[in-house]
Amino acid sequence: MISPFSPVESRAHEWPAFSKLLALCALSTGLFFTDNVTVLFAAFACTALVYGIAGPAFLRTALVTLRTLLPVVALVTIWHGATGDPRGGAVIILRMITLVVWASAFTMTTRLGEMVELVRSCAKPFERIGFPVGSLGLAIPLTIRFIPVFIARTRSMDEAWRARSESRRKWRLFLPLLLAAMDDADDVAEAIRARGGTNP
């Protein structure tokens, strides 16, 4: 659900990574301090407006993100409908989709180098007690960036499986996906070591 960096430039690309992260944290905290459906819907509407202003590429990304959330939305709707609390379900759904889409916007408009520097700056005070700031500053952005890569590989293997077999035992994809992820991790580790490691 987290989108890769978007090559389509927007004004948000020029904003400092720290300011965008601070805004995301403030929005996340604010959404959990209210259960007013009107306020939550207004926050979601603002999200849609921002994506629309940023351009068609961003808007398509938001729609894809929302599509991936449909199973969760359906489950929450069914559960809260059965328990007689539709308002509670609406609060959860609005919070979830707003935060996921805003988080996706953050990763789309923030370069990997900016993320690394941001994490390192935030963790700098812990360096005095031996905390591996360099490793953390590299691990978190890499994890974020590899999520869409892993999702794309899963879809590719799923399509290959459906083209070759009528069986629905998709659990068999687990092992090749695990091996592919380990192979990618090994390649990235080799590349990092070749460039001097996390603390050159």
TrEMBL record:
Gene Ontology CC annotation, any one: plasma membrane
InterPro entries attached to this UniProt entry: ABC/ECF_trnsptr_transmembrane (IPR003339)
Compartment annotation: Membrane
Alphabetized UniProt keyword annotations: Membrane, Transmembrane, Transmembrane helix
Domain of life the protein comes from: Bacteria
UniProt membrane topology term: Multi-pass membrane protein
Family: Belongs to the CbiQ family.
Protein's recorded name: Cobalt transport protein
Organism: Nitratireductor indicus C115
Lineage, uppermost ranks: Bacteria, Pseudomonadati, Pseudomonadota, Alphaproteobacteria, Hyphomicrobiales
